[in-house]
Amino acid sequence: xxxxxxxxxxxxxxxxxxxxxxxxxxxxxxxxxxxxxxxxxxxxxxxxxxxxxxxxxxxxxxxxxxxxxxxxxxxxxxxxxxxxxxxxxxxxxxxxxxxxxxxxxxxxxxxxxxx
Length: 115
Known about the structure:
Layout: H1 5-14, E1 21-26, E2 29-34, E3 37-43, E4 46-50, H2 56-60, E5 65-67, E6 78-81, H3 89-105
Antiparallel strand pairs: 1-2, 2-3, 3-4, 4-6, 5-6
């Protein structure tokens, strides 16, 4: 499945000075892991953001924001932002900064034990 490479490049540029960034193919798109934790991604033409779940309600009031719901059930703290929600540099940087701020406090997913 294809994803928006221009959006991925835009995210790469915003993370260029951030240490410990790793790209992983995920969700049919790309995910940018920061400090070993899921942080920001691109799925199709949308940016996937992992932010503080406390901000759920205020995030949903923002233009272009909707809950991430791969399983049919919204995941708290995970959102998709469409093009209308990140048209301006200011709007784009707003989401990037929320993701990076939460990344500092979030816990990494538990590693699966290979058998």
